[in-house]
Description:
By secondary structure, this protein is an alpha/beta fold. The protein has twelve helices and eight strands.
Amino acid sequence: MTQPRIAFIGAGNMAASLIGGLRAEGVPADAIRASDPGADKRDAMSREHRIEAFAENRDAVAGADIVVLAVKPQVMQEVCRALAEHLEPQTLVVSIAAGISCESLQRWLGASRPIVRCMPNTPSLLRQGVSGLFANPQVSAAQRQQAERLLSAVGLALWLDDENLIDAVTAVSGSGPAYFFLMIEAMTAAGEALGLPRQTAEQLSRHTALGAARMACESEVDAAELRRRVTSPNGTTEAAIKAFQAGGFESLVQQALNAAARRSVELAEQLGR
Ligand SMILES: NC(=O)C1=CN([C@@H]2O[C@H](COP(=O)(O)OP(=O)(O)OC[C@H]3O[C@@H](n4cnc5c(N)ncnc54)[C@H](O)[C@@H]3O)[C@@H](O)[C@H]2O)C=CC1
Ligand SMILES: O=C(O)[C@@H]1CCC=N1
């Protein structure tokens, strides 16, 4: 496969993660361009990734095979409408924005275009991300592979056959890192309340999260079995799990993810107009 030329519109956190992953995978610097109104963002792109960065979006997309839309959802309409006349009809558009549908992108880009919509997450920064991807019918088999390669450079990429499932992916893994950070914060505070020095409580909590996540990803048995292996009958873990369950832990997690998915739908309704 020849190396596609990739243009990033917006050079913020997620774009920097994806570009870092692509460069680490051996994609040459001259195959990647970016644009951002922020001079600091452009300087960082040139300095850290050796790629050319432009102030004008239209300069970044000239000759691109793939255009990655990596701006905030609130500016997406304006960005797409201004870019429409500068894109070739066959250019693959990849959007990572939360709550922006393929249908809205089509309308703002003014033509029937190949679009891959995806939802990555921030551990992409460490190439430990996970993302859900949806391709509209205009996307060719070769373009599907290109999109998969882009997201696989920063973690696991999973295809979805229904665009509506992106709301669920957003609730589980897009926002998900924040839930685990909240757990680390809460465990640190609880450890401190039990008498540990704050720094010790924090290190214990962070490294427990890291070890548990690695076991869950690398083990052949499921999380429930791994949990059972920690839980001695009538022991300390059982006491803690009973306290979680008495407080409605599972139902609370369900409510939290429902709220995130609902918000994703609301954003789509508000921003899609
Ligand atoms: N942060 C997260 O956890 C996740 C974010 N996303 C999505 O990724 C997208 C980008 O988010 P972040 O990288 O976190 O935001 P960010 O704020 O770090 O990056 C956005 C960049 O766009 C630039 N920008 C603003 N107006 C522009 C314009 N007219 N043309 C070109 N660039 C422009 C900004 O200067 C900024 O550098 C959002 O749509 C978000 O929904 C998706 C998954 C996870
Ligand atoms: O909170 C948000 O809306 C974005 C989308 C997923 C993660 N951050």
